[in-house]
Amino acid sequence: MDTKSIAVKFNIIGIDDKFYVQLDTYMDGASSDWLNQHAGLFIKSVNQEIKKFNLLARFIGKGGELRKRCECLRVTATHLTDKLDLATIAHLNLDNWALLCGRVEPLVLDDRNLLRSFCGTRKISDLLGLIFPVGLVGDAAAYASRSLVVLLYALRNGGDPKWLSGDSMKSLVALFDAGRTPKSGFHSFTQWGAANYNTVQENIDGHFLKHVCAYSNKMPAEAVFPSEAAWWWKKFDLSLRYDQVLPCITDPGDRNALQSFFTKSGDIDRGKLESFLKTETIKNSAQLQSMLIGRGADIYRKYALSLSKVMATVAVTCSSGKAFVCGYHLADEIFICGRIDANGFGISSCYKSLNLPKKMKSDEDQRMWLLRA
Questions:
Q1: What is the pLDDT of residues 201-256, one digit of tens each?
Q2: Which residues pair with 318 in a beta bridge?
Q3: Residue 253, Cβ neighbours under 10 Å: how many?
Q4: How far is residue 239's CA from residue 268's CA, in Å, rounded to a whole number?
Q5: Can you give the chain as a three-state secondary structure string?
Q6: What's the pLDDT tens digit per position in 66-108?
Q7: Alpha carbons within 13 A on the beta-carbon side of 347
Q8: Of 166, 167, 134, 172, nearest to 152 (Cα)?
Q9: Alpha-carbon distances of 195 from 6, 33, 135, 348, rounded to whole Å
Q10: Rounded to whole angstroms, how far apart are CA atoms 192 and 302?
Q11: Are 124 and 81 in contact, with CB atoms under 8 Å apart?
Q12: Per residue in 268-299, pLDDT tens?
C-alpha cells in the first residue's frame, strides 16, 4: 500500500500529491506494509494534518535508513510502548535505538513486559539514556547489553525506575559487576571510601565532625544535629576539659559563657553536653576541631567498619545519581552506606538516625534490590 492510501485510511487530507510521490520514493514493500499496520501509533499524537506528514518525512529520512527505522518502530511498538511520539523519535540516535531494539526482541515475554511497564512511566528516550548514558566511554554495544541486564534485575526486584538516570545506571552496573547482585549476601565493608571528598581521611574527618561534633563545612547548620552528636560522645566516652577549650577561645565573653558547660573540676558536664554542642565553639576553632579529630575520628572509623558486619536489610539503592549499598544497625539505630568511588568500594557515611523507621521507609522507596534481609 502506498503512502497516499495510508493517508486516506487514516483520514489525513490536504496533502499535495507531489509529497506522496516523494515519500513513496523511499518506501519499500516491508516499510509500507508496516506503516499500513501501525501508522495510527504515531500520527494520533500530532495535531495538524500537514505536520503529520512533515514529521513522517523527516522520520523516514532517505535511502537505506528507511527499513532500519521502520524495524526499530516495529520492535518499539510491539515490545516497548505504543505511546510513540514521532517528533521525539525522529531525533533519537538511530544506531543506539537499533542496538537497543536488537537487545529487546530476543528477551522473554516477562522481561519485555517489564520494559513496557518502564516505558509506561518514562519516555522511550529515557530508556535510551540509561542504556547509552552521556559521556559513555568504551564499547557501547557491550555496555548496552550489560546495562540492560542490570536494569532488568532492578525491575524484577521491584526497583522504581524514577530513581534511575544515566549516571546512577553506570554506578549500578559497577556495583553489579563487583558482585553486589540481588541476594548475593554481604559480609561487611572492609574500608572507608573518599565519597564526595578528595581523600578517604578527609571523608572520615568530615563525617566525624558532622555527626559526632555537630559541625560541617559542607552542610548548613540545620543539617547537623547536636542531639545525635551528644549520643556519639556518650557512645565513645569522649571527654573534654575547660582548660583544653580555653586556648581555642579568643572572645572573653565566650569564655565566661562556655564555663557554665563544665563542672567545677573542669570536665564537660554530661547533662549539658547537647547544649554545648549547639554553640559554635567547635565551628569557630580549627584547633579544637583538630584535637577532637585526633581523639575520636579513628574510633568512629573502626566502629563503622565493625558495625557493617552486623547490618540488617542490606540493599542496593539509587539516589543523587549514584548507586549505594546501605544497611542499618537496629539496636543503635545506625545507618551505614557505601559505594564505589575513586578509592574503590568503601563506606561513604555512617550516622545515627533520629527516626530510623522513617529513614528505612525512605530508603525502601529507593531500593533496587536486596543483598541481605
A1: 999 999 999 999 999 988 887 789 999 999 999 999 999 999 999 888 777 777 77
A2: 323
A3: 8
A4: 7
A5: CCHHHHHHHCCCCCCCHHHHHHHHHCCCHHHHHHHHHHHHHHHCCCCCHHHHHHHHHHHHCCCCHHHHHHHHHHHHHHHHCCCCCHHHHCCCCHHHHHHHHHHHCCCCHHHHHHHHHHHHHCCHHHHHHHHCCCCCCCCHHHHHHHHHHHHHHHHHCCCCHHHCCHHHHHHHHHHHHCCCCCCCCCCCCCCECCCCCCCHHHHHHHHHHHHHHCCCCCCCHHHCCHHHHHHHHHHHCCCCEHHHHHHHCCCHHHHHHHHCCECCCCEECHHHHHHHHHCCCCCCCHHHHHHHHHHHHHHHHHHHHHHHHHCEEEEEEEECCEEEEEEEECCCCEEEEEEEECCEEEEEEEEECCCHHHHHHHHHHCEEEEEEC
A6: 778 888 888 888 899 877 777 777 777 888 989 999 999 999 9
A7: 31
A8: 172
A9: 57, 54, 21, 5
A10: 10
A11: yes
A12: 999 999 999 999 899 988 999 999 999 999 99
Distance of CA 323 to the CA centre of its chain: 5
Task: Pull the grid cell for residue 271.
Answer: 547533662
- Cell, residue 182: 540481588
C-alpha cell at 347: 563506606
